[in-house]
Write a structure and sequence with these properties.
182 residues; mainly alpha; globular
């Protein structure tokens, strides 16, 4: 068991290093007087998001996430699932570090809080789903009942993530923007 604990600690450290690497690269590029405003999520998007109906948001999110899950699923079938998950997490965390630095540079601390509000809680659900999918993809030789149960869990988690992104994130944005200086 201590070996698993050490593996987890080293993986978490590696992922934190990816966030830090994204932050450092963004700061280097920003210091070279490059305009990186394309990487920020401006506050004006919050009023636009709040003004769209739940049905429109739900359809849009369902369409986007279905395409993304299909691509990830195909990657899991073609490449080793553990490698796809690790490379994908590394890339996402690097990009997160890059974007959070740009948010801080252009919009200050309230921009960082706004970005975190836009990602919570649905991205935690999606990350859990991707991790579960990677873990289940390694168990190829199991019986059909376990595969069906895993598929049902993934589908349920997918729809919970979509509903939370469509509904809960709008509620969070409406209720918490006043507290972060918007």
């Amino acid at each position: 068991m201590p070996y698993e604990s050490e593996k987890l600690k080293s993986r978490v450290f590696y992922y934190l290093c990816m966030v830090l690497a994204g932050c450092i690269l963004a700061n280097i590029v920003l210091r070279c007087d490059r305009n990186l405003q394309v990487f920020i999520l401006p506050f004006t998007d919050s009023s636009r998001l709040a003004g769209v109906s739940v049905q429109q948001t739900l359809f849009y999110v369902l369409l986007q996430r279905t395409k993304q899950v299909a691509v990830v699923y195909l990657l899991y079938k073609v490449f080793p699932p553990k490698a796809v998950f690790s490379i994908g997490m590394s890339a996402l965390l690097f990009l997160f570090g890059f974007v959070i630095s740009c948010q801080m540079f252009y919009l200050g601390l309230s921009g960082v809080w706004f970005l975190l509000l836009c990602l919570f809680p649905h991205y935690l659900i999606y990350l859990g789903m991707l991790y579960y999918l990677a873990a289940e993809a390694r168990k190829v030789g199991e019986d059909k009942n376990k595969k069906r149960m895993a598929a049902m869990i993934l589908i349920l988690t997918f729809f919970v993530g979509i509903l939370s992104e469509s509904i809960l994130s709008k509620i969070f944005l409406k209720n918490f923007l006043q507290y972060i200086g918007m």
